[in-house]
């Protein structure tokens, strides 16, 4: 699991006084990419890019401007060039949202789907 700190800005707040639903997508993207950059070897980070294929968000509670929230990212599996993550956005121990997402790994040069080496995958999914 990887913990990513989230900052809530005034621009994230919608007309109802809480974080706009669209902001959660940005948070998930930032958290998953930060996880990749922290755990993967430097050469793998340089050689690969990630694009989101699907996000499924379940909103549990609203988040507000002064809240302290984090995103816990869990790699669930890697299948070919695709990786599946679960991101749990929390305020303290309270779950604010759960996100299941799938991503496609791309070769940074060709921009075509690319499989990760087993050594890289093991950093996220130990055997």
What do we call the CATH homologous superfamily?
Answer: Hotdog Thioesterase
- Unreliable sequence segments: none
Order of helices and strands: EHHEEEEH
The spatial strand order of the largest sheet comes to: 1-3-4-5-2
Rounded mean pLDDT score = 96
Cα-atom Rg, whole angstroms? Answer: 15 Å
Summarize the SSE layout with pairings:
Layout: E1 2-6, H1 21-39, H2 42-47, E2 48-59, E3 69-79, E4 82-91, E5 94-107, H3 118-124
Antiparallel strand pairs: 1-3, 2-5, 3-4, 4-5
Description:
- Helix content is 25%, strand content 41%.
- The model has no long low-confidence stretch (mean pLDDT 96).
- It is elongated, with a radius of gyration of 15 Å.
- The protein has a single domain (2-124), classed as Thiol Ester Dehydrase, Chain A (Roll).
- A five-stranded antiparallel sheet has the order 1-3-4-5-2.
- It has 127 residues and is α+β, with helices and mostly antiparallel strands.
- The chain has helices at residues 21-39, 42-47, 118-124, and strands spanning 2-6, 48-59, 69-79, 82-91, 94-107.
